[in-house]
Amino acid sequence: MADVREGQAWQALEKQSLLVRAELAKGYALRRWFSEDPGRFERMHLRLGELLFDPSKQLVTPEVSRLLNALAEERGLAPAMAAMVKGEPINLTEGRAVLHTALRDLSGGPRRVGGQDVMPDVRAVLAQMREFVTALRSGAWRGATDLPIRDVVNLGIGGSDLGPAMATAALQPYWQAGLRVHYVSNVDGAHLHGTLADLQPETTLFIVASKTFTTQETLANAHSARAWLVGALGQGAVARHFAALSTNAKAVSDFGIDLRQMFAFWDWVGGRYSLWSAIGLSVACAIGMDAFEDLLRGAHEADRHALEAPIAANIPAQMALIGAWNRNFLGLQSLAVLPYDQSLHRLPAYLQQADMESNGKTTTQSGDRTQWPTGPIVFGEPGTNGQHAFYQLLHQGSDVVPADFILVAHSAWATALNHPIGDHHELLLANGLAQTEALLRGKTADEVAHELQQAGIVGDAAKALVPHKIFTGDRPTTTLLMGRLTPHALGRLIAIYEHKIFFQGILWNICSFDQWGVELGKQLAKAIGPELRGETSGDHDASTAGLIAEVRRRRNA
Ligand code: G6Q
Protein backbone atom coordinates (compact mmCIF):
# COMPACT_ATOMS: atom_id res chain seq x y z
CA MET A 1 0.00 0.00 0.00
CA ALA A 2 1.81 3.10 -1.26
CA ASP A 3 -0.45 5.56 0.56
CA VAL A 4 0.02 4.64 4.18
CA ARG A 5 -3.17 6.49 5.13
CA GLU A 6 -5.35 4.06 3.23
CA GLY A 7 -4.87 1.21 5.69
CA GLN A 8 -7.61 0.27 8.13
CA ALA A 9 -5.42 0.66 11.20
CA TRP A 10 -4.20 4.08 10.06
CA GLN A 11 -7.78 5.24 9.57
CA ALA A 12 -8.89 3.83 12.92
CA LEU A 13 -5.98 5.67 14.55
CA GLU A 14 -7.13 8.90 12.95
CA LYS A 15 -10.52 8.40 14.63
CA GLN A 16 -8.83 7.55 17.93
CA SER A 17 -6.79 10.70 17.73
CA LEU A 18 -10.02 12.72 17.88
CA LEU A 19 -10.98 10.94 21.10
CA VAL A 20 -7.53 11.47 22.59
CA ARG A 21 -7.55 15.14 21.59
CA ALA A 22 -10.92 15.47 23.33
CA GLU A 23 -9.41 13.90 26.46
CA LEU A 24 -6.49 16.31 26.23
CA ALA A 25 -8.86 19.24 25.84
CA LYS A 26 -10.40 18.39 29.22
CA GLY A 27 -6.96 18.93 30.72
CA TYR A 28 -4.60 16.72 32.75
CA ALA A 29 -5.47 13.55 30.83
CA LEU A 30 -2.32 11.64 31.84
CA ARG A 31 -3.05 12.22 35.52
CA ARG A 32 -6.51 10.74 35.01
CA TRP A 33 -5.24 7.80 33.02
CA PHE A 34 -2.68 6.94 35.67
CA SER A 35 -5.16 7.25 38.53
CA GLU A 36 -7.88 5.25 36.76
CA ASP A 37 -5.43 2.56 35.71
CA PRO A 38 -2.90 1.72 38.43
CA GLY A 39 -1.45 -1.05 36.25
CA ARG A 40 -0.45 1.36 33.46
CA PHE A 41 3.30 1.33 34.15
CA GLU A 42 3.35 -2.39 34.89
CA ARG A 43 1.49 -3.19 31.69
CA MET A 44 3.35 -0.85 29.37
CA HIS A 45 7.01 -1.09 30.32
CA LEU A 46 9.34 -3.52 28.55
CA ARG A 47 12.77 -4.87 29.37
CA LEU A 48 15.74 -6.01 27.35
CA GLY A 49 18.57 -7.19 29.59
CA GLU A 50 19.22 -4.34 32.02
CA LEU A 51 17.39 -1.82 29.86
CA LEU A 52 13.93 -0.77 30.98
CA PHE A 53 11.77 1.01 28.42
CA ASP A 54 8.85 2.94 29.88
CA PRO A 55 6.45 4.56 27.39
CA SER A 56 3.62 4.80 29.95
CA LYS A 57 3.92 8.61 30.08
CA GLN A 58 3.06 8.83 26.37
CA LEU A 59 -0.38 10.02 25.24
CA VAL A 60 -1.42 6.49 24.37
CA THR A 61 -4.59 4.72 25.52
CA PRO A 62 -4.97 0.91 25.51
CA GLU A 63 -7.04 1.22 22.32
CA VAL A 64 -4.35 3.35 20.66
CA SER A 65 -1.76 0.74 21.64
CA ARG A 66 -3.88 -2.01 20.12
CA LEU A 67 -4.32 -0.07 16.89
CA LEU A 68 -0.63 0.84 16.71
CA ASN A 69 0.19 -2.86 16.91
CA ALA A 70 -2.32 -3.44 14.10
CA LEU A 71 -0.58 -0.69 12.13
CA ALA A 72 2.72 -2.54 12.55
CA GLU A 73 1.07 -5.57 11.01
CA GLU A 74 -0.55 -3.51 8.24
CA ARG A 75 2.73 -1.85 7.30
CA GLY A 76 4.70 -5.11 7.57
CA LEU A 77 7.33 -4.14 10.14
CA ALA A 78 8.30 -7.71 10.97
CA PRO A 79 8.79 -8.89 7.35
CA ALA A 80 10.70 -5.69 6.57
CA MET A 81 13.14 -6.40 9.40
CA ALA A 82 13.52 -9.99 8.21
CA ALA A 83 14.28 -8.74 4.67
CA MET A 84 16.93 -6.33 5.99
CA VAL A 85 18.82 -8.94 8.02
CA LYS A 86 18.61 -11.39 5.12
CA GLY A 87 20.66 -8.97 3.05
CA GLU A 88 17.98 -8.11 0.50
CA PRO A 89 18.71 -4.93 -1.49
CA ILE A 90 16.28 -2.80 0.52
CA ASN A 91 18.16 0.44 -0.16
CA LEU A 92 16.26 0.74 -3.42
CA THR A 93 17.50 4.10 -4.65
CA GLU A 94 21.13 3.07 -4.31
CA GLY A 95 20.50 -0.61 -5.19
CA ARG A 96 22.21 -1.93 -2.05
CA ALA A 97 21.70 -4.30 0.80
CA VAL A 98 21.69 -2.83 4.30
CA LEU A 99 23.58 -5.20 6.52
CA HIS A 100 25.11 -3.36 9.44
CA THR A 101 23.49 -6.07 11.59
CA ALA A 102 26.02 -8.55 10.12
CA LEU A 103 28.90 -6.48 11.50
CA ARG A 104 27.83 -7.21 15.05
CA ASP A 105 27.01 -10.86 14.56
CA LEU A 106 29.89 -12.70 16.20
CA SER A 107 27.93 -15.97 16.32
CA GLY A 108 29.97 -17.59 13.56
CA GLY A 109 27.05 -18.22 11.19
CA PRO A 110 26.87 -17.03 7.56
CA ARG A 111 25.25 -13.74 6.44
CA ARG A 112 24.71 -13.34 2.74
CA VAL A 113 24.60 -10.46 0.28
CA GLY A 114 23.70 -11.48 -3.28
CA GLY A 115 24.18 -15.12 -2.29
CA GLN A 116 27.71 -14.59 -0.98
CA ASP A 117 28.64 -15.06 2.69
CA VAL A 118 30.16 -11.77 3.85
CA MET A 119 31.21 -13.01 7.28
CA PRO A 120 34.71 -14.26 6.38
CA ASP A 121 35.58 -10.69 5.28
CA VAL A 122 33.93 -9.19 8.37
CA ARG A 123 35.91 -11.49 10.64
CA ALA A 124 39.16 -10.83 8.77
CA VAL A 125 38.80 -7.07 9.30
CA LEU A 126 37.98 -7.58 12.98
CA ALA A 127 41.14 -9.66 13.32
CA GLN A 128 43.17 -6.99 11.51
CA MET A 129 41.70 -4.33 13.81
CA ARG A 130 42.55 -6.41 16.88
CA GLU A 131 46.15 -6.83 15.80
CA PHE A 132 46.57 -3.12 15.11
CA VAL A 133 44.78 -1.92 18.25
CA THR A 134 46.73 -4.31 20.45
CA ALA A 135 50.04 -3.16 18.97
CA LEU A 136 49.09 0.49 19.32
CA ARG A 137 47.86 0.25 22.91
CA SER A 138 50.81 -1.88 24.07
CA GLY A 139 53.31 0.53 22.56
CA ALA A 140 54.57 -2.12 20.14
CA TRP A 141 53.43 0.07 17.22
CA ARG A 142 56.11 2.74 16.93
CA GLY A 143 56.12 6.01 15.09
CA ALA A 144 58.82 7.01 12.63
CA THR A 145 61.15 8.09 15.43
CA ASP A 146 60.57 4.89 17.39
CA LEU A 147 58.27 6.47 19.96
CA PRO A 148 54.92 4.94 20.93
CA ILE A 149 51.69 6.66 19.85
CA ARG A 150 50.08 8.94 22.48
CA ASP A 151 47.40 10.65 20.36
CA VAL A 152 45.06 9.21 17.76
CA VAL A 153 43.27 11.73 15.53
CA ASN A 154 40.22 10.49 13.63
CA LEU A 155 39.67 12.55 10.49
CA GLY A 156 36.14 11.96 9.21
CA ILE A 157 32.76 13.63 8.98
CA GLY A 158 29.07 12.67 9.22
CA GLY A 159 28.74 8.95 9.67
CA SER A 160 32.53 8.61 9.76
CA ASP A 161 32.69 10.88 12.80
CA LEU A 162 29.47 11.16 14.79
CA GLY A 163 29.09 7.50 15.81
CA PRO A 164 32.71 6.90 16.80
CA ALA A 165 32.97 10.29 18.53
CA MET A 166 29.75 9.64 20.46
CA ALA A 167 30.80 6.12 21.50
CA THR A 168 34.32 7.19 22.48
CA ALA A 169 32.95 9.95 24.71
CA ALA A 170 30.32 7.63 26.18
CA LEU A 171 32.92 5.07 27.21
CA GLN A 172 35.51 7.36 28.76
CA PRO A 173 35.94 5.23 31.90
CA TYR A 174 37.25 2.48 29.60
CA TRP A 175 39.95 4.62 27.98
CA GLN A 176 43.56 3.57 28.31
CA ALA A 177 45.53 6.06 30.38
CA GLY A 178 48.13 7.88 28.30
CA LEU A 179 46.37 7.36 24.95
CA ARG A 180 44.06 10.13 23.80
CA VAL A 181 41.64 9.88 20.89
CA HIS A 182 40.53 13.08 19.13
CA TYR A 183 37.94 13.68 16.42
CA VAL A 184 38.34 16.33 13.73
CA SER A 185 35.47 16.73 11.30
CA ASN A 186 34.91 20.34 10.32
CA VAL A 187 36.63 21.66 7.21
CA ASP A 188 37.17 24.85 9.22
CA GLY A 189 40.96 24.73 9.69
CA ALA A 190 40.46 25.83 13.28
CA HIS A 191 39.21 22.35 14.14
CA LEU A 192 42.33 20.58 12.90
CA HIS A 193 44.81 23.20 14.01
CA GLY A 194 43.17 23.61 17.41
CA THR A 195 43.55 19.86 17.91
CA LEU A 196 47.12 19.64 16.62
CA ALA A 197 48.29 22.60 18.72
CA ASP A 198 48.69 20.27 21.68
CA LEU A 199 50.12 17.26 19.85
CA GLN A 200 53.58 16.07 18.80
CA PRO A 201 53.98 14.63 15.29
CA GLU A 202 56.32 11.92 16.65
CA THR A 203 53.58 10.44 18.84
CA THR A 204 50.46 11.13 16.72
CA LEU A 205 48.58 8.69 14.51
CA PHE A 206 45.98 9.91 12.01
CA ILE A 207 43.09 7.66 11.08
CA VAL A 208 41.45 8.88 7.90
CA ALA A 209 37.87 7.61 8.11
CA SER A 210 36.04 7.90 4.83
CA LYS A 211 33.89 5.30 3.14
CA THR A 212 34.26 6.93 -0.28
CA PHE A 213 37.65 8.60 0.34
CA THR A 214 36.41 11.49 -1.78
CA THR A 215 34.70 13.62 0.89
CA GLN A 216 35.91 17.19 0.56
CA GLU A 217 36.13 18.03 4.26
CA THR A 218 37.91 14.83 5.26
CA LEU A 219 40.41 14.98 2.41
CA ALA A 220 41.18 18.65 3.13
CA ASN A 221 41.88 17.72 6.76
CA ALA A 222 43.88 14.65 5.76
CA HIS A 223 46.08 16.66 3.36
CA SER A 224 46.74 19.32 6.00
CA ALA A 225 47.47 16.68 8.62
CA ARG A 226 49.90 14.99 6.25
CA ALA A 227 51.64 18.31 5.55
CA TRP A 228 51.96 18.92 9.32
CA LEU A 229 53.49 15.49 9.81
CA VAL A 230 55.74 15.57 6.75
CA GLY A 231 56.91 19.09 7.65
CA ALA A 232 58.19 17.75 10.95
CA LEU A 233 59.26 14.19 10.16
CA GLY A 234 59.58 13.91 6.37
CA GLN A 235 57.64 11.96 3.74
CA GLY A 236 58.86 8.61 5.02
CA ALA A 237 56.91 9.09 8.27
CA VAL A 238 53.50 8.78 6.60
CA ALA A 239 53.55 4.98 6.67
CA ARG A 240 53.85 4.81 10.48
CA HIS A 241 51.49 7.71 11.23
CA PHE A 242 48.52 7.19 8.91
CA ALA A 243 45.82 4.55 8.69
CA ALA A 244 42.66 4.56 6.56
CA LEU A 245 39.14 3.20 7.01
CA SER A 246 37.51 2.99 3.62
CA THR A 247 35.90 1.03 0.83
CA ASN A 248 38.12 2.73 -1.75
CA ALA A 249 41.56 1.09 -1.80
CA LYS A 250 42.73 2.95 -4.89
CA ALA A 251 42.11 6.39 -3.42
CA VAL A 252 43.72 5.34 -0.12
CA SER A 253 46.79 4.16 -1.94
CA ASP A 254 46.88 7.29 -4.16
CA PHE A 255 46.84 9.39 -0.98
CA GLY A 256 49.99 7.55 0.12
CA ILE A 257 48.66 5.36 2.89
CA ASP A 258 50.16 1.88 3.09
CA LEU A 259 47.36 -0.58 2.25
CA ARG A 260 48.47 -2.75 5.17
CA GLN A 261 47.05 0.04 7.32
CA MET A 262 43.80 0.19 5.42
CA PHE A 263 40.79 -1.32 7.17
CA ALA A 264 38.07 -2.18 4.70
CA PHE A 265 34.34 -2.18 4.78
CA TRP A 266 31.67 -2.55 2.13
CA ASP A 267 28.98 -0.71 0.24
CA TRP A 268 26.28 -2.51 2.23
CA VAL A 269 27.36 -0.51 5.30
CA GLY A 270 25.63 2.88 5.26
CA GLY A 271 27.70 5.82 6.52
CA ARG A 272 25.51 6.59 9.54
CA TYR A 273 25.33 2.86 10.36
CA SER A 274 29.09 2.31 10.11
CA LEU A 275 30.18 2.66 13.74
CA TRP A 276 30.18 -1.15 13.89
CA SER A 277 32.56 -1.57 10.96
CA ALA A 278 36.22 -0.58 10.56
CA ILE A 279 34.90 2.97 11.13
CA GLY A 280 34.91 1.98 14.82
CA LEU A 281 38.72 1.67 14.82
CA SER A 282 39.24 4.91 16.76
CA VAL A 283 36.75 3.72 19.39
CA ALA A 284 38.66 0.44 19.61
CA CYS A 285 41.94 2.35 20.05
CA ALA A 286 40.36 4.18 23.00
CA ILE A 287 38.64 1.26 24.76
CA GLY A 288 40.44 -1.84 23.43
CA MET A 289 39.23 -4.53 21.11
CA ASP A 290 37.54 -6.68 23.77
CA ALA A 291 35.37 -3.74 24.83
CA PHE A 292 34.68 -2.88 21.17
CA GLU A 293 33.44 -6.43 20.61
CA ASP A 294 31.21 -6.05 23.69
CA LEU A 295 29.71 -3.00 21.99
CA LEU A 296 29.00 -5.22 18.96
CA ARG A 297 27.48 -7.93 21.18
CA GLY A 298 25.16 -5.41 22.81
CA ALA A 299 23.96 -4.26 19.40
CA HIS A 300 23.52 -7.88 18.31
CA GLU A 301 21.30 -8.51 21.35
CA ALA A 302 19.08 -5.63 20.16
CA ASP A 303 19.13 -7.00 16.59
CA ARG A 304 17.79 -10.35 17.75
CA HIS A 305 15.19 -8.63 19.88
CA ALA A 306 14.06 -6.39 17.00
CA LEU A 307 13.83 -9.42 14.73
CA GLU A 308 12.28 -11.94 17.12
CA ALA A 309 10.19 -10.15 19.77
CA PRO A 310 6.49 -9.89 18.97
CA ILE A 311 5.52 -6.32 18.08
CA ALA A 312 3.77 -5.63 21.40
CA ALA A 313 6.95 -6.58 23.27
CA ASN A 314 9.41 -5.17 20.74
CA ILE A 315 11.12 -2.04 22.11
CA PRO A 316 12.24 -0.45 18.81
CA ALA A 317 8.88 -1.23 17.21
CA GLN A 318 7.03 0.35 20.12
CA MET A 319 9.31 3.41 19.97
CA ALA A 320 8.64 3.71 16.25
CA LEU A 321 4.88 3.30 16.60
CA ILE A 322 4.60 5.80 19.45
CA GLY A 323 6.78 8.23 17.49
CA ALA A 324 4.43 7.87 14.52
CA TRP A 325 1.42 8.34 16.80
CA ASN A 326 2.91 11.63 18.02
CA ARG A 327 3.96 12.76 14.57
CA ASN A 328 1.09 11.66 12.35
CA PHE A 329 -1.93 11.58 14.63
CA LEU A 330 -1.22 14.18 17.31
CA GLY A 331 0.67 16.54 14.97
CA LEU A 332 3.79 16.82 17.15
CA GLN A 333 6.79 17.82 15.09
CA SER A 334 9.88 17.25 17.14
CA LEU A 335 11.65 14.86 19.47
CA ALA A 336 13.97 15.86 22.30
CA VAL A 337 16.67 13.37 23.26
CA LEU A 338 17.73 14.05 26.82
CA PRO A 339 20.48 11.82 28.21
CA TYR A 340 20.98 12.18 31.95
CA ASP A 341 24.62 11.19 31.72
CA GLN A 342 27.40 13.54 30.75
CA SER A 343 29.22 10.73 28.91
CA LEU A 344 26.32 10.68 26.46
CA HIS A 345 26.76 14.33 25.57
CA ARG A 346 27.26 13.51 21.86
CA LEU A 347 24.21 11.22 21.71
CA PRO A 348 21.74 13.93 20.62
CA ALA A 349 24.04 14.97 17.75
CA TYR A 350 24.52 11.34 16.76
CA LEU A 351 20.78 10.66 16.80
CA GLN A 352 20.10 13.85 14.88
CA GLN A 353 22.00 12.37 11.98
CA ALA A 354 20.72 8.82 12.44
CA ASP A 355 17.11 9.97 12.49
CA MET A 356 16.97 13.13 10.39
CA GLU A 357 19.23 11.91 7.58
CA SER A 358 17.33 8.62 7.46
CA ASN A 359 13.76 9.83 7.69
CA GLY A 360 13.82 13.52 6.76
CA LYS A 361 12.21 12.71 3.39
CA THR A 362 9.09 13.44 1.38
CA THR A 363 9.33 10.87 -1.42
CA THR A 364 7.80 7.42 -1.05
CA GLN A 365 9.56 4.22 -2.07
CA SER A 366 7.64 4.36 -5.33
CA GLY A 367 8.60 7.95 -6.09
CA ASP A 368 5.42 9.78 -5.09
CA ARG A 369 5.26 12.67 -2.70
CA THR A 370 4.36 11.72 0.85
CA GLN A 371 1.11 13.31 1.94
CA TRP A 372 1.89 12.68 5.61
CA PRO A 373 4.52 13.98 8.01
CA THR A 374 7.70 11.91 8.27
CA GLY A 375 10.83 12.23 10.44
CA PRO A 376 10.67 14.60 13.42
CA ILE A 377 13.09 17.42 14.19
CA VAL A 378 15.49 15.89 16.70
CA PHE A 379 17.45 17.92 19.22
CA GLY A 380 18.78 17.56 22.71
CA GLU A 381 21.34 18.21 25.38
CA PRO A 382 22.45 16.24 28.37
CA GLY A 383 20.39 16.75 31.51
CA THR A 384 20.68 18.80 33.64
CA ASN A 385 22.18 21.40 31.26
CA GLY A 386 19.07 21.37 29.08
CA GLN A 387 16.93 22.10 32.13
CA HIS A 388 18.64 25.47 32.47
CA ALA A 389 18.28 26.20 28.78
CA PHE A 390 15.28 25.04 26.74
CA TYR A 391 13.11 23.07 29.19
CA GLN A 392 11.02 26.22 29.73
CA LEU A 393 9.59 25.58 26.27
CA LEU A 394 9.16 21.87 26.98
CA HIS A 395 7.03 22.67 30.03
CA GLN A 396 5.10 25.75 28.96
CA GLY A 397 5.79 26.39 25.27
CA SER A 398 3.06 26.50 22.61
CA ASP A 399 4.48 23.36 20.96
CA VAL A 400 4.29 20.03 22.70
CA VAL A 401 7.69 18.31 22.34
CA PRO A 402 7.80 14.56 22.98
CA ALA A 403 11.01 13.62 24.75
CA ASP A 404 13.15 10.55 25.38
CA PHE A 405 14.79 10.60 28.80
CA ILE A 406 17.81 8.33 29.03
CA LEU A 407 18.79 7.56 32.60
CA VAL A 408 21.67 5.41 33.84
CA ALA A 409 21.19 3.90 37.32
CA HIS A 410 24.89 3.58 38.19
CA SER A 411 27.48 6.22 37.45
CA ALA A 412 30.15 4.76 35.18
CA TRP A 413 32.69 6.96 36.89
CA ALA A 414 31.76 5.74 40.35
CA THR A 415 32.31 2.18 39.11
CA ALA A 416 35.55 2.99 37.31
CA LEU A 417 37.05 5.04 40.13
CA ASN A 418 35.51 2.88 42.82
CA HIS A 419 34.05 5.80 44.73
CA PRO A 420 30.67 7.48 44.49
CA ILE A 421 31.84 11.09 43.76
CA GLY A 422 29.56 12.54 46.45
CA ASP A 423 25.86 12.50 45.71
CA HIS A 424 26.14 13.82 42.13
CA HIS A 425 24.55 10.79 40.61
CA GLU A 426 21.50 10.83 42.89
CA LEU A 427 21.05 14.53 42.06
CA LEU A 428 21.26 13.76 38.36
CA LEU A 429 18.78 10.88 38.52
CA ALA A 430 16.39 12.78 40.77
CA ASN A 431 16.34 15.61 38.24
CA GLY A 432 15.68 13.29 35.31
CA LEU A 433 12.86 11.47 37.08
CA ALA A 434 11.38 14.73 38.36
CA GLN A 435 11.30 16.21 34.87
CA THR A 436 9.35 13.28 33.47
CA GLU A 437 6.92 13.54 36.38
CA ALA A 438 6.53 17.31 35.95
CA LEU A 439 5.90 16.96 32.22
CA LEU A 440 3.25 14.35 32.92
CA ARG A 441 1.38 15.93 35.79
CA GLY A 442 1.83 19.66 35.33
CA LYS A 443 0.37 21.99 37.94
CA THR A 444 -3.26 23.16 37.99
CA ALA A 445 -4.47 26.68 38.73
CA ASP A 446 -5.81 25.50 42.10
CA GLU A 447 -2.48 23.96 43.00
CA VAL A 448 -0.68 27.15 42.05
CA ALA A 449 -3.10 29.29 44.09
CA HIS A 450 -2.69 26.99 47.08
CA GLU A 451 1.11 27.17 46.87
CA LEU A 452 1.02 30.96 46.63
CA GLN A 453 -1.26 31.13 49.64
CA GLN A 454 1.16 28.95 51.61
CA ALA A 455 3.90 31.40 50.66
CA GLY A 456 1.76 34.29 51.92
CA ILE A 457 0.91 35.66 48.46
CA VAL A 458 -2.81 36.36 48.19
CA GLY A 459 -5.28 38.76 46.55
CA ASP A 460 -4.36 40.60 43.35
CA ALA A 461 -0.72 39.64 43.58
CA ALA A 462 -1.70 35.95 43.58
CA LYS A 463 -4.26 36.46 40.82
CA ALA A 464 -1.65 38.07 38.59
CA LEU A 465 0.87 35.30 39.14
CA VAL A 466 -1.34 32.22 38.83
CA PRO A 467 -1.55 32.06 35.01
CA HIS A 468 2.24 32.26 34.68
CA LYS A 469 2.79 29.40 37.08
CA ILE A 470 0.33 26.93 35.59
CA PHE A 471 1.75 23.84 33.89
CA THR A 472 -0.68 22.08 31.57
CA GLY A 473 1.11 18.72 31.89
CA ASP A 474 0.26 16.02 29.31
CA ARG A 475 3.69 16.46 27.70
CA PRO A 476 4.61 12.98 26.53
CA THR A 477 7.89 11.31 27.48
CA THR A 478 9.51 7.90 27.24
CA THR A 479 12.11 6.85 29.78
CA LEU A 480 14.93 4.48 28.88
CA LEU A 481 16.55 3.38 32.12
CA MET A 482 19.92 1.68 31.76
CA GLY A 483 21.82 -0.19 34.47
CA ARG A 484 25.38 0.84 33.74
CA LEU A 485 26.84 2.54 30.70
CA THR A 486 29.00 -0.41 29.59
CA PRO A 487 30.06 -1.01 25.97
CA HIS A 488 27.42 -3.76 25.79
CA ALA A 489 24.68 -1.47 27.11
CA LEU A 490 25.69 1.33 24.74
CA GLY A 491 25.64 -1.03 21.75
CA ARG A 492 22.18 -2.22 22.75
CA LEU A 493 20.86 1.32 23.13
CA ILE A 494 22.22 2.56 19.80
CA ALA A 495 20.94 -0.46 17.88
CA ILE A 496 17.48 0.03 19.41
CA TYR A 497 17.44 3.57 18.04
CA GLU A 498 18.68 2.35 14.64
CA HIS A 499 15.83 -0.16 14.45
CA LYS A 500 13.29 2.39 15.62
CA ILE A 501 14.36 4.62 12.73
CA PHE A 502 14.18 1.71 10.30
CA PHE A 503 10.68 0.75 11.48
CA GLN A 504 9.53 4.35 11.10
CA GLY A 505 10.82 4.42 7.52
CA ILE A 506 8.61 1.38 6.84
CA LEU A 507 5.62 3.00 8.56
CA TRP A 508 6.06 6.08 6.37
CA ASN A 509 6.95 4.16 3.19
CA ILE A 510 10.21 6.02 2.65
CA CYS A 511 13.76 4.80 2.03
CA SER A 512 15.69 5.36 5.27
CA PHE A 513 19.06 4.47 3.79
CA ASP A 514 19.77 7.08 1.14
CA GLN A 515 20.54 10.77 1.67
CA TRP A 516 20.01 12.58 -1.62
CA GLY A 517 19.08 15.71 0.29
CA VAL A 518 22.71 16.38 1.19
CA GLU A 519 23.83 16.53 -2.45
CA LEU A 520 22.59 19.88 -3.76
CA GLY A 521 24.52 22.01 -1.28
CA LYS A 522 27.71 20.03 -1.99
CA GLN A 523 27.22 20.52 -5.73
CA LEU A 524 26.73 24.27 -5.44
CA ALA A 525 29.69 24.66 -3.04
CA LYS A 526 31.95 23.14 -5.71
CA ALA A 527 31.00 25.96 -8.07
CA ILE A 528 31.20 28.73 -5.48
CA GLY A 529 34.74 27.81 -4.32
CA PRO A 530 36.43 28.96 -7.58
CA GLU A 531 34.15 32.01 -7.68
CA LEU A 532 35.42 33.11 -4.27
CA ARG A 533 38.94 32.90 -5.65
CA GLY A 534 37.88 34.99 -8.66
CA GLU A 535 38.64 32.18 -11.11
CA THR A 536 35.08 31.82 -12.43
CA SER A 537 31.80 33.64 -12.24
CA GLY A 538 28.41 31.97 -11.86
CA ASP A 539 24.74 32.54 -12.34
CA HIS A 540 23.13 33.09 -8.93
CA ASP A 541 20.10 34.69 -7.35
CA ALA A 542 20.75 38.27 -6.30
CA SER A 543 21.25 37.40 -2.63
CA THR A 544 23.88 34.70 -3.23
CA ALA A 545 25.63 36.81 -5.90
CA GLY A 546 25.66 39.83 -3.57
CA LEU A 547 27.09 37.78 -0.71
CA ILE A 548 29.79 36.21 -2.93
CA ALA A 549 30.80 39.68 -4.10
CA GLU A 550 30.86 40.98 -0.53
CA VAL A 551 32.99 38.07 0.72
CA ARG A 552 35.44 38.66 -2.13
CA ARG A 553 35.59 42.39 -1.41
CA ARG A 554 36.31 41.79 2.27
CA ARG A 555 38.89 39.08 1.65
CA ASN A 556 40.69 41.17 -0.96
CA ALA A 557 40.64 44.37 1.14
C1 G6Q B 1 25.82 8.96 6.27
C2 G6Q B 1 26.17 9.80 5.17
C3 G6Q B 1 27.28 10.77 5.47
C4 G6Q B 1 28.67 10.19 5.33
C5 G6Q B 1 29.66 11.36 5.25
C6 G6Q B 1 31.07 10.91 5.16
O1 G6Q B 1 25.00 8.08 6.22
O2 G6Q B 1 26.39 9.04 4.05
O3 G6Q B 1 27.16 11.39 6.72
O4 G6Q B 1 28.97 9.34 6.38
O5 G6Q B 1 29.32 12.17 4.16
O6 G6Q B 1 31.26 10.15 4.00
P1 G6Q B 1 32.58 9.36 3.78
O7 G6Q B 1 32.72 8.34 4.86
O8 G6Q B 1 32.48 8.75 2.43
O9 G6Q B 1 33.71 10.36 3.86
Secondary structure layout plus pairing:
Elements: H1 8-26, H2 29-36, H3 40-44, E1 46-48, E2 51-54, H4 62-75, H5 77-85, H6 100-103, E3 112-113, E4 116-117, H7 119-138, E5 151-155, H8 162-170, E6 180-184, H9 189-196, E7 204-209, H10 216-233, H11 238-241, E8 242-246, H12 249-255, E9 262-264, H13 281-287, H14 289-308, H15 315-329, E10 334-340, H16 347-359, E11 377-380, H17 391-396, E12 403-408, H18 412-417, H19 424-441, H20 445-454, H21 459-469, E13 477-482, H22 487-508, H23 519-532, H24 542-556
Parallel strand pairs: 5-6, 5-7, 7-8, 8-9, 10-11, 10-12, 12-13
Antiparallel strand pairs: 1-2, 2-13, 3-4
Helix pairs in contact: 1-4, 4-15, 7-13, 8-13, 8-16, 13-14, 14-22, 15-22, 16-22, 20-21
The protein binds glucose-6-phosphate (G6Q).
Quick description:
With 557 residues, the protein is α/β, with parallel strands linked by helices. It has helices spanning 8-26, 29-36, 40-44, 62-75, 77-85, 100-103, 119-138, 162-170, 189-196, 216-233, 238-241, 249-255, 281-287, 289-308, 315-329, 347-359, 391-396, 412-417, 424-441, 445-454, 459-469, 487-508, 519-532, 542-556, and strands at 46-48, 51-54, 112-113, 116-117, 151-155, 180-184, 204-209, 242-246, 262-264, 334-340, 377-380, 403-408, 477-482. Bound molecules: glucose-6-phosphate.
